[in-house]
Amino acid sequence: GQQLNQSPQSMFIQEGEDVSMNCTSSSIFNTWLWYKQDPGEGPVLLIALYKAGELTSNGRLTAQFGITRKDSFLNISASIPSDVGIYFCAGQLLSGNTPLVFGKGTRLSVIA
Amino acid sequence: GAVVSQHPSRVICKSGTSVKIECRSLDFQATTMFWYRQFPKQSLMLMATSNEGSKATYEQGVEKDKFLINHASLTLSTLTVTSAHPEDSSFYICSALGLAGRREQFFGPGTRLTVL
User: Fold this and answer.
1) Chain-centroid distance, C-alpha A89
2) Chain B residues closer than 8 Å to A31 by CB
């Protein structure tokens, strides 16, 4: 099935550093979502984006819905050890009850 | 926030047996639920879309007779892995889509299935 191109695949950063990851697609999406997944758990929704150009923050997290509707980025500022996990972007091609298309994930490791 | 539960969280079964996994939306009604499968260090793979009161829509390559889905109410969907085999061992996760035009999907905590 269709997948989003998510990069980077993994990151090792020092505590306190800022992090940026992004997703791109050849298709236009109506919705972009960012999730975090801890080992052995289900993904937890971090930020939802609904409009092209929309910039939304959730604490130290900031995400933007690209103006072309084919990309999105997630920034984490001043990383802390509990930021460790796998971050997934997800897009919805159409509104309503259509399934999400997922990126392959970015594995974040934070070195204290 | 919207809470989705799954039961059981872990299950170990013998090859050939059937296993039922429940997915419940606890504080909202979900007209649509999705079932995913996730292998270690990989992304989520959509298995099927479950709509309340109607037959599930399966993704290509997913056997509907192998993975039975029932969405009998607005708060409960079940996935039954029939005649499980070791290759069915995986992490199964459901998500729920709420009413009133909300487009976020909320995920359950997942069920780890191990088939011996």
Assistant:
1) 4
2) 103
C-alpha distances out from residue A46 to A60, B74, B76, Å: 11, 25, 24
For residue A82, what is the enclosing H or E element? none
The closest CB to that of B59, out of A1, A31, A48, belongs to A1
Q: Spell out a b/e string for B64-78, using b for 16 or more CB atoms within 10 Å of the CB, else e.
A: eeebbbebeebbebb
**Which pLDDT score is estimated for B105?**
86
Contact A48 B34 (CB under 8 A): no
A44 contacts in chain B (CB < 8 Å): 107
pLDDT tens digit at each of 112 positions of chain A: 567 899 999 999 999 999 999 999 998 999 999 999 999 999 999 999 999 999 999 999 999 999 999 999 999 999 999 999 999 999 988 766 678 899 999 999 999 8
Among candidates A44, A90, A99 on the partner chain, residue whose Cβ is nearest the Cβ of B49: A99
Q: Rounded to whole angstroms, how far apart are CA atoms B113 and B88?
A: 8
